[in-house]
Amino acid sequence: MVHFGHANALRQAKQMGDYLVVGVHSDEEIMKHKGPPVFSQEERYKMVRAIKWVDEVVENAPYVTTLETLDTYNCDFCVHGDDITTTSDGTDTYHLVKAAERYKECKRTVGISTTDLVGRMLLVTKSHHERDETKGPNKNDLKEVGLSQDGRSPYTGTKQFVPTTKRIAQFSEGHEPKPNDKIVYVAGAFDLFHVGHLDFLEKASQYGDYLIVGIHSDPVVNRYKGSNYPIMNLHERVLSVLTNKYVSEVIIGAPYTVTMQMINDFKIDAVCHGMTPILPDVDGSDPYEIPKEIGIFHRIDSSNDLTSDMIVQRIIRNKFLFEERNKKKEAKEVYIENMIRKQ
Fold first, then answer.
1. Which residues contact 74 (CB under 8 A, 6 or more apart)?
2. Spatial separation of the C-alpha atoms in residues 57 and 22, rounded to whole Å
3. Which residue intervals make up region (Disordered) (predicted)?
4. How far apart are CA 129 and CA 136, in angstroms?
5. How far is 326 from 333, CA to CA, in rounded Å?
6. Is 187 helix (H, G, I), strand (E, B) or coil?
């Protein structure tokens, strides 16, 4: 997957230099060294290109970073998080650039990982929602999907992401719209941020100059999605959207219905929605009734029908493979961590 933890590493890497080149591994490389990827390589290439701190993407980047790779793309050094990453045989994937002193580290974002998100999808619980943040997942369930509640690995597990205003500020553009900017508004769950969302936001941004994205709260999303949705809680979804280069501003916990007051307050010129069905509000009303009445509502066909449900179905179809992926990843990290401590 491509999540805000990855984006935060890229943000930190960009601060270390002037031009950020990001290598993205192929499906074949990931399958060999880590296990099945959630997003396809084409989806990951596109997602990384849309992260606002990225200048260039190298497709099919080798799993072990070499000096030749750095030189080919005119890179002075390589950056990775302070977590452990190895090949399938346990080799440090950055040993070559470390030996040449062309390696730097950034801080890993605690509380978010692909392994954790896969575990949430397999658990089918709501313990990750913000309204339930005092509760934890069942310990036996965690073991079943290959996650450790006691956090034996310092990198993989179920440590909860703790949102801060500093992190939101780091991700935010922080600029106001210009006086003559045309302001576009869209709203939704934006759960498990994927290329379907990306293509929609790109199309929506073409309706104006300044794109505001409203992110619905966990209870609101759960009302219209059901089950254990959203998989990512409100603040995780906010950070995911803020990483996107087409997004100018985010409304945290946006109301489900777009009111005239909201349109006036934010000086909204266009309200856009994708091709997914529009479900009524709790009182049975159309949440886009007012934008439709005043002629600023637009339906957008992004030509991409990927949904968060489809992402979850990918996981469920390959449940055993992903459970084994989680178990092997944590076991490898625990082993390496123990070896480091013994040195």
1. none
2. 5
3. 127-159
4. 10
5. 11
6. strand
Domains of the chain (ranges; CATH) run 4-106 (3.40.50.620), 114-162+310-342 (no CATH), 165-299 (3.40.50.620)
Q: Are 308 and 3 in contact (CB under 8 A)?
A: no
H or E segment at 42? helix 41-49
Give the separation between CA 47 and CA 199, rounded to whole angstroms.
10
pLDDT surpasses 90 at 36: no
Tens digits of residue pLDDT in 124-150: 656 656 644 444 445 444 444 444 444
pLDDT number for residue 340? 55
Angle at CA of residue 44, ends 158 and 125, nearest 5°: 30
d(CA 131, CA 260): 29
Indicate the DSSP class of residue 92: B
* 40 compared with 115, residue with greater pLDDT: 40
- Token pair, residue 185, equals 């508004």
Non-local CB neighbours of 179 within 8 Å, separated by 6+ positions: none
The fraction of the chain above a pLDDT of 90, given in percent, is 68
Four-CA torsion 281, 285, 287, 288, nearest 10 degrees: 160
Helix (H, G, I), strand (E, B) or coil at 330: helix
Residue 159: per-residue pLDDT = 55
Predicted pLDDT at 145: 45
Q: Taking a C-beta distance cutoff of 8 angstroms, is the pair 254, 225 a contact?
A: no
Structure tokens at 270: 């266009």
